[in-house]
Specification:
This protein has 259 residues and is an alpha/beta fold. The chain has 2 domains: 3-115, Rossmann fold, CATH 3.40.50.720; 125-229, Dihydrodipicolinate Reductase, domain 2 (2-Layer Sandwich), CATH 3.30.360.10. The protein contains 6 helices and 12 strands. The protein has helices at residues 13-23, 77-86, 100-113, 125-137, 160-172, 235-244, and strands at residues 3-8, 28-34, 52-54, 67-70, 90-93, 117-119, 143-150, 192-194, 197-203, 209-217, 220-228, 251-253. The strands form 2 sheets. A 7-stranded parallel β-sheet has the order 3-2-1-4-5-6-12, sandwiched between helices. Helix 2 (77-86) packs parallel to helix 3 (100-113) and helix 4 (125-137) packs parallel to helix 5. It is elongated, with a radius of gyration of 19 Å. It starts with a strand and ends in a 6-residue tail after the last strand.
Length: 259
């Protein structure tokens, strides 16, 4: 039986990569797209001619799709995922910007509806491994800062990957105090702060997605870095998610948890 997929944000760079992925996956078919600004011309966006285009959630009928791929915006993603779960559509979400509280609410809703899904701060294998390695290193190097670099059009800062990295480091990091008498002569020059871990966000043209985790120790340093040079690299993770989320009965955070 063919599995039906709705792609939310199908007009964007990542959305188009997702459309191309599903178009080339045996046993899967894009049956719909969601975008508030799209024209009613599916083939213009490389969707199958039979695919339906919707401008808002209220237009989407019941029993339309089995999977919901979301590459939209931080403002839209929470309501999108909530809608998908309530309508028993399994979400595969690459949009970042939701709060911890919003993610927690969606997990509770997924358990109530018994619908599996995945929210991934990053679908790149190199990013998943960076987070795993950084979490392990944090046991030995409590002094750490994160630099994330993305394209100039990215809507949220810090990136979901950088924030997820900081959370994973904090889980393993020994209790640690930063310098209490540090003074910023230029406001926010030291970056954002997550439990004492500084995060610095860079936004420049021509970048795609890059992250460095810098650890400092007595007489030595460790740098872990990953680079995504092409958005197509994220599709391996999306493919894995589409193949595995129907085995879940609740919403999971992080691609590493289904590998």
């Amino acid at each position: 039986m063919t599995k039906k997929v709705l792609v939310a944000g199908f007009m964007g760079a990542m959305g188009q990569k997702a459309v191309n992925l599903v178009n080339n996956m045996p046993g899967f078919e894009v049956v719909a797209g969601l975008s508030p600004i799209a024209e009613d011309n599916p083939e213009q966006y490389h969707l199958p001619a039979s695919a339906k285009i919707f401008k808002n959630l209220t237009e989407i009928p019941d029993n339309l799709a089995d999977f919901w791929i979301d590459f939209t915006t931080p403002k839209a993603v929470y309501e999108n995922v909530k809608f998908a779960l309530q309508h028993h559509i399994r979400p595969v979400v690459g949009t970042t910007g939701m709060s911890d509280e919003q993610e927690a609410e969606l997990i509770v809703l997924s358990k109530k509806e018994k619908v599996g899904g995945l929210i991934a701060p990053n679908f790149g294998m190199s990013a998943v491994l960076l987070m795993k390695f950084a979490k392990e290193a944090a046991k030995y190097f409590p002094d750490v800062e994160i630099i994330e670099m993305h394209h100039a059009d990215k809507k949220d800062a810090p990136s979901g990957t950088a924030l997820a990295t900081a959370k994973m480091i904090a889980e393993n990091r020994p209790e640690h105090q930063t310098a209490p008498d540090e003074v910023e002569t230029l406001k926010n020059v030291r970056g954002g702060d997550y439990q004492g871990i500084k995060i610095h966000s860079v936004r420049l043209p021509c970048y795609i997605a890059h992250e460095q985790v810098l650890f400092g120790g007595s007489g030595e340093a460790l740098t872990i870095r990953q680079d995504s040079f092409d958005r197509g690299s994220f599709m391996n993770g999306v493919k894995v998610a589409l193949e595995k989320v129907d085995q879940l009965d609740e919403l999971v955070i992080g691609l590493e948890n289904i590998l």
